[in-house]
Q: What sequence folds into this?
């Protein structure tokens, strides 16, 4: 097994200097190739496209502003990132966790003198504090209670940040995020300006959006418009057959046995594709399961049985996540999923000490910490 870069090289060797493929192709044999891939893997960058995520973009080449994706901004070291936004008019395109975090960082650095503009199309639910998990029988009622609390506690209506969809739908599709500290305080003071638009046009001064006659003067534009993890999976393959197998139907999520193994590509293990509110913890449990498989401590069922189980999960994900089914979120069934992996490995899925603790204390990644030492 190796890193994604080595896996990509093993699966596809590019041509060089016009030489024929037969002279440059290299073949490597692996027992299993493991991809450590979070869903947030391939940026939706509009810097090189006409259409960026949910926004229609025009006139990019006319702008003097520096344009980048949030992935590129996050890759900068702290000093370089601070210098990039210092005393700059920054515009963030997007409205989810990454966009709000970058906006808060810019507001903290520049204050009201150089306000950060945040352009959104859709609003999502944010939590000012960490909320306990919702029990299935009470889920709908609790979600409505949380919606009421957020509408009352935060100035959502004042700034056009009331989501069109329910809290439960955002929760089930892993769209819930933690609100940056004092975010709306910064909006109130004017260091963050929120605007709504479905279209963007670049001009020499900056950006022109829907309903605005004057351009938004800006020095830096950062697109925080999401990622396409499924396309990254598809693009690592040269074979059209493998590409079609891994992507599946455009109306369904990528179907993986135990959310790790593709039934038609059993020597390829994918860790971290499915989303959860604890991605790192769940990925570690998957890695333990995979180590058991490679050590011969458990066996894969037939292709037909693997496809049956994978399709069952795909149907469930599509049913509960709605329009965000390609994100493959399993937040509302993560404990059930972890139970499956524990049973496969021969471990007790009940990780708490005592029946009452198992029933009433929320499960966390620390409950599975001892699996790595077994």
A:
């Amino acid at each position: 097994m190796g890193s994604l870069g080595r896996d990509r090289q093993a699966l596809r060797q590019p041509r060089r200097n016009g030489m024929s493929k037969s002279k440059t192709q290299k073949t490597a044999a692996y027992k299993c190739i493991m991809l450590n891939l979070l869903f947030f893997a391939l940026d939706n960058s509009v810097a090189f496209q006409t259409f960026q995520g949910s926004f229609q973009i025009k006139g990019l080449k006319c702008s003097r502003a520096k344009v980048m994706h949030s992935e590129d901004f996050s890759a900068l070291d702290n000093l370089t990132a601070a210098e990039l936004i210092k005393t700059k008019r920054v515009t963030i395109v997007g409205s989810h966790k990454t966009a709000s975090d970058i906006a808060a960082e810019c507001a903290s650095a520049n204050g009201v003198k150089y306000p950060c503009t945040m352009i959104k199309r859709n609003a999502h639910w944010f939590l000012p504090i960490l909320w306990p998990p919702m029990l299935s029988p009470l889920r709908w009622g609790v979600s409505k209670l949380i919606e009421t609390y957020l509408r009352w506690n935060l100035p959502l209506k004042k700034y056009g940040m009331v989501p069109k969809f329910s809290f439960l739908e955002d929760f089930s599709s892993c769209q819930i995020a933690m609100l940056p500290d004092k975010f709306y305080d910064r909006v109130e003071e004017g260091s963050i300006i929120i605007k709504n638009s479905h279209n963007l046009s670049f001009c020499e001064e900056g950006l022109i959006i829907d309903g605005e006659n004057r351009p938004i003067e800006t020095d830096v534009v950062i697109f925080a418009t999401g990622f396409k993890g499924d396309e990254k999976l598809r693009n690592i393959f040269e074979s059209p057959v493998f590409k079609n197998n891994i992507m599946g139907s455009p109306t369904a999520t990528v179907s993986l046995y135990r959310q790790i193994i593709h039934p038609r590509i059993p020597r390829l293990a994918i860790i971290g594709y499915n989303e959860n509110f604890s991605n790192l913890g769940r990925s570690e449990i998957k890695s333990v399961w995979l180590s058991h498989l490679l050590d011969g401590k458990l066996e894969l069922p037939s292709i037909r049985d693997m496809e049956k189980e994978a399709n069952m999960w795909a149907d469930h994900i599509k049913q509960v996540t709605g329009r965000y089914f390609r994100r493959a979120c399993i937040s509302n069934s993560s404990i059930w999923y972890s139970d499956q992996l524990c049973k496969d490995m021969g471990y007790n899925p009940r990780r708490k000490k005592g029946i009452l603790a198992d029933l009433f204390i929320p499960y966390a990644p620390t409950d599975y910490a001892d699996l790595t030492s077994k």
